[in-house]
Amino acid sequence: MSRVDRSSRHHPPEVSPSSRLAGFEEVVGVLTEARARAEAERCMICGQCGKCRSCVELFGCPAFYLKDRRIHIDSELCVGCGVCAEFCPNGAIEPRVVSSGAELSTLDSRS
User: Fold this and answer.
1) Does the domain spanning 54-110 belong to CATH 3.30.70?
2) Separation CA 18–CA 58 (nearest Å)
3) Between 45 and 55, whose confidence is greater?
4) Largest CA distance in the chain
């Protein structure tokens, strides 16, 4: 499930530093719809949490919770069924074996 996409990143237009001093216009512009779509297609399916919050908002498992703007899995509530690992669109949840049995972890909670 790996994908290599070597296309360059699309950046929104920015007002030059010298022009910023002359007025109050927005410094960073927006991408056109075509460029925004091209940027979104660059997803590398890297296995890292994409912050989509599907596990918290759509899956409904009580073991998932937010703390300090990061998603964590409460090992006391996790039964190790692995359904969330299949549910995660980024593949960011994976089983790991601990001394007390199976447990699931996200890439975010391992750091």
Assistant:
1) yes
2) 47
3) 55
4) 63
Q: pTM for the whole thing?
A: 0.48
Structure token digits, residue 97: 């074996």
CB 110 within 8 A of CB 71: no
* Rounded Cα distance, 20 and 101, in Å: 58
Please give the helix or strand (H or E) that residue 102 lies within, else none. strand 101-106
H helices present in the chain, as ranges: 17-20, 33-40, 54, 83-87, 107-110
Count the neighbouring beta carbons within 10 Å of the beta carbon of residue 35: 14
Ramachandran quadrant class, 108 (left: phi over 0; alpha: psi -120 to 50; beta: rest): alpha
Domains of the chain, residue spans = 1-45, 54-110
